[in-house]
Inverse folding.
């Protein structure tokens, strides 16, 4: 069974790391220096260079040091939704950047 | 059986076809290729248009506020409604509404007031909780979720799997065993459970070939459901279920045909415009015959599905015909999309075209609502259970 929560290694959100990043579709998380997850997103089939391109945009828009981790996944839409619901179960709210983008997600998960 | 459309059917089919082409297909240019839902504002706007067409809640009987169309017309509309990228599992992004409402036809008036009518108005949503980890093809024997009477309530314990949209639904239609473990089909009862109640847990999303639409795994631990939420008599859940499953196989099969028709249109357009070795693909016999095979599959499936729908409309037994239609439509449409991908070459497997999504999603169609093998068992019981006679 797939893990509900992401357990991939964290990397610095920096050009030197992103150069090696996958160009496939998938999901990602961003965390601040304290390790708080501040954003969850995905690279879909409409992105030209997948996760690498989307994370490069995150780097451009970010004004503070961040870490990121990814999961290459063709089911990026349902996985994105799952990560949001699990985050809300764990922390009682969506990540701050997700809320700032106006994304809301209807529904609930109660993982044991 | 008459396979020509009446003037009224033609007008409805033309209206829905225009709606799909003018309102639905253009939206998909800006959506993710795997998207299955629209933003709320667009959904509300389109649902209002469907209301004006008089076609909201297609599967709801007229006495409960549905449009009151017969099964044959419903089938013809289902063929049209699925002719877009998301159309197989989210025909017209569900703006026609009413999916699953037929399961509440046997509800009491009080239950209809609390669940069916709010759902029909778009104020609530439900999910259908049947399949269990112990199996989905033989619910009479495989249902292990138990409901035990406790005064005016039932206490439900167990688990379900592959339940679409349970994470978003307000209520679930739950089938649980109320008889002994070996009670078979006589021991199943149907309940309506509120998904927000203590003891109702959506444990995870199950990721499948349908990447934009989630199935879930749920469990019940001491879930209390009032007896007022029992649908039908104790032990009669399986009979209700059988009726619902057989009827649903008809529009379910019709949606596969719609996708096949669209794939065939794309394959023909491509074959008439693409040249290989100095000749159009359409001028090469190997390709032309693939298009002919597509057409045979489409017409075969259409006639089978309309035959089942016609019997349902005339009040004749249609379980065997619906089973046959389900096999022919799901397998035939899978072949049509597969050939259409082959004709398109490399383009066929890209997300630039909808073919790869239909290819993935049609694979599920051969399992969902009873796999091909179960449909064959239904037909074989009819064939072998009484003296053989020609079906017409």
């Amino acid at each position: 069974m797939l893990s509900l929560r992401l357990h991939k290694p964290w990397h610095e959100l920096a050009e030197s790391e992103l150069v090696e990043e996958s160009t496939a579709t998938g999901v990602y998380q961003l965390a601040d220096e304290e390790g708080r997850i501040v954003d969850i997103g995905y690279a879909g089939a409409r992105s030209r260079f997948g996760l690498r391109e989307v994370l490069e945009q995150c780097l451009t828009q970010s004004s503070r040091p961040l870490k990121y981790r990814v999961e290459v996944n063709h089911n990026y839409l349902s996985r994105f939704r799952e990560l949001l619901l699990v985050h809300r179960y764990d922390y009682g709210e969506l990540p701050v950047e997700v809320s700032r983008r106006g994304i809301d997600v209807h529904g609930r998960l109660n993982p044991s | 059986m008459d396979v020509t459309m009446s003037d009224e059917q033609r007008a409805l089919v033309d209206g829905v076809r225009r709606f799909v082409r003018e309102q639905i297909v253009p939206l998909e240019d800006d959506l993710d290729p795997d998207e299955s839902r629209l933003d709320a504002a667009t959904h509300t706007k389109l649902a209002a248009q469907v209301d004006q067409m008089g076609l909201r809640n297609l599967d709801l009987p007229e006495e409960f506020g549905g449009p009151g169309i017969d099964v044959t017309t419903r089938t013809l509309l289902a063929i049209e409604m699925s002719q877009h990228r998301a159309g197989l599992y989210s025909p017209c992004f569900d703006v026609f509404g009413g999916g699953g409402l037929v399961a509440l036809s046997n509800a009491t008036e009080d239950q209809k007031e609390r669940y069916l009518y709010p759902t029909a108005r778009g104020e609530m949503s439900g999910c259908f909780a049947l399949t269990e980890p112990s199996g989905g093809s033989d619910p009479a024997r495989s249902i292990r979720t138990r409901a035990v009477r406790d005064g005016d309530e039932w206490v439900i314990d167990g688990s379900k799997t592959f339940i679409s949209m349970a994470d978003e639904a307000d209520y679930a239609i739950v089938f649980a065993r109320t008889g002994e473990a070996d009670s078979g089909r006589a021991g199943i009862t149907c309940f309506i459970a509120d998904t927000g109640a203590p003891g109702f847990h959506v444990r995870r999303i199950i990721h499948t070939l349908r990447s934009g639409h989630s199935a879930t795994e749920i469990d019940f631990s001491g879930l209390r459901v009032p007896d007022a939420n029992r649908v039908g008599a104790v032990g009669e859940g399986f009979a209700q279920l059988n009726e619902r499953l057989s009827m649903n196989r008809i529009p379910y099969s019709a949606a596969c045909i719609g996708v096949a028709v669209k794939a065939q249109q794309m394959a023909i357009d491509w074959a008439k415009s693409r040249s290989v070795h100095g000749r159009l693909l359409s001028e090469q016999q190997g390709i032309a015959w693939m298009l002919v095979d597509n057409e045979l599959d489409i017409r075969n499936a259409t006639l089978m599905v309309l035959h089942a729908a016609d019997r349902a409309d005339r009040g004749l037994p249609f379980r065997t015909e619906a089973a046959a239609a389900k096999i022919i439509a799901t397998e035939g449409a899978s072949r049509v999309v597969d050939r259409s991908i082959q004709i398109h070459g490399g383009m066929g497997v890209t997300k630039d075209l909808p073919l790869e999504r239909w290819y993935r999603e049609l694979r599920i169609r051969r399992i969902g609502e009873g796999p091909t093998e179960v449909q064959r068992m239904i037909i074989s019981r009819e064939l072998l259970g009484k003296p053989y006679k020609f079906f017409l």
